[in-house]
Amino acid sequence: MILQLNKIEKNFENIQVLKDFSLVVSKNEIVCIIGPSGCGKSTLLNMISGYIYPCSGELENKSDNISYVFQEDRLLPWRNVYENIQIVNKKQSKEHILSLIEKVGLKGFEEHYPLELSGGMRQRCAIARAFNYDANLLLMDEPFKSLDYNLRFNMIDQLLELWHTKKCAVVFVTHEIDEALLLGDRIVVLSSRPTKPIKEIDIDKPKGKRSLKDKELIEIRNKIIECIIN
Description:
Blueprint: E1 3-12, E2 15-25, E3 30-34, H1 41-49, E4 56-61, E5 66-69, H2 81-86, H3 94-103, H4 119-132, E6 137-141, H5 149-165, E7 169-174, H6 177-183, E8 186-190, E9 197-202, H7 215-229
Parallel strand pairs: 3-7, 3-8, 5-6, 6-7
Antiparallel strand pairs: 1-2, 1-4, 8-9
Helix pairs in contact: 3-4, 4-5
């Protein structure tokens, strides 16, 4: 276990966002979080990161370092691709950083600046930066939200390639069921506010060897849809 939340509650003034929220994340596990808009998914990630604190309950985080990939790439516009990745961990070798750049499909763009890149390329750079930080817990807040459908699948493949190189625990927030089906060891479906997990589903088939046409994944998708619409 690298992360445990036990009966967490979080209020903002008179609005209760999280209620009796419990979750356990194991080392090297990818947990995908699905829930309605405004239910507190980003609030959950911000509490795990230590940016904000729960009003009550227990949050135990055993990670040494945390990486955070946001919906926006948040690259430094005055630094090129190589420098944006290097800046979070200047102890890493040049060879390591160039390897990350190649793994996310940005080889040849090392000296390009964010304004010279497409949205998908910037987000790939942000993901490479997160892995260069060498964290054992990675938080991802709808990182593919602004990308088109085909590019999302390409990003999923690249994320999994990086994850296999440096396995870490991942908490991945998404609205897209297909992203969760392809990435998650476990999918956690959240209720509306006040938010808590209403269903957890384990996926046995190895990541990277799944197809959305698999019978198991189709059945899981139907279970998730049933939770969401009820």
